[in-house]
Amino acid sequence: MQEKQLHSRQKILFFNKDYISEFVYGGIDGAITTFAVVAGAEGAGLGIQVVVILGLANLIADGFSMSVGNFFSTKAERDSFERHRQVEYWEVENLHDKEVQEIREIYAAKGFKGELLEQVVEVITSNKEVWVDTMMKEELEMVKSDKTAYSTAGMTFFSFVTVGSVPLLSYFFAGTGPANTQELFLYSCILTGVALAIVGSLKSIVTEKNLFFGILETLFLGGIAAFLAYFVGDVLEKMFVNL
Q1: Residues 135, 3: contact at Cβ < 8 Å?
Q2: Which of 92, 116, 118, 173 has its CA 20 to 30 A from that of 220?
Q3: Are the C-beta atoms of residues 2 and 195 closer than 8 Å to each other?
Q4: How far apart are the two ends of the chain, measured CA to CA in Å?
């Protein structure tokens, strides 16, 4: 138990390691979708104010939508775990001999045999909570996560909004005065690239994959999304202009 609590408190940078995955995928989605909006607006030749309005609307709406989806997904997993746990409790109480035999078969498959096997079975089945936990893990391959639906949703929304706001920074600071939109878009590209590189490095830590390829993959996906959005915005702008 103490080891489990210590593991849950482990941090990478200033993040609790248990929530790194939510931060990473929320951040990637936020940066890519917001940058796609910026690129699409730039391709259509829209003004700075329009870019900011569209970007903020996307940031809040998509961030909330993603966090709600994460909330219900996590809640469904926890509810499913509890339902199966209650079923195991019922089986332990009402199908005692059958459940004992299942424990015996599980540990026999692990190499236990003879008197040692019977001792293991006796120890596990002497405590109903340990017995049910063992069946959940060994038979159903289900382990309850310490993460709550509210905490995962909160982290997802926080990362989506925080990282997703990066592509808009250059437009925010441009103000309402005259500005070269091409320069603003270039700054947005650079800032977004830096943000995606940082999040991509965190993704590599979560997935335990090569750091370079993790960053490259994230930048590539962001670049493709931006290119498609810019292209669509440019094509639509020319279509409506020619009408």
Answers
A1: no
A2: 173
A3: no
A4: 69
Question: DSSP letters along 11-74, please?
Answer: EETTEEGGGHHHHHHHHHHHHHHHHHHHHHHHHTT--HHHHHHHHHHHHHHHHHHHHHHHHHHH
**What are 60-99's pLDDT values in tens digits?**
999 999 899 989 988 998 899 999 999 999 998 899 899 9
Q: Rounded to whole angstroms, what are the CA distances from 206 to 18, 121, 123, 215, 231? A: 10, 36, 36, 13, 33
Residue 178 CA from chain centroid, whole number: 39
State both tokens at 18. Answer: 């248990």
Q: Return the residue matching tokens 């999304």.
A: 225
pLDDT at 36: 84
The confidence score (pLDDT) of residue 138 equals 87
What gap in Å lies between CA 27 and CA 138, rounded to an integer? 34
Q: Tokens standing for 147?
A: 């993460």
* Phi, psi for 11 (deg, rounded to 5): -130, 150
CA dist 104 and 10 (Å) reads 36
3-state secondary structure of 12: strand
The Cα 20–Cα 195 span in angstroms is: 15
The residue with tokens 């390691």 is 17
DSSP alpha helix (H) spans, 165-180: 169-172
Q: Does the pLDDT of residue 188 top 60, yes or no?
A: yes
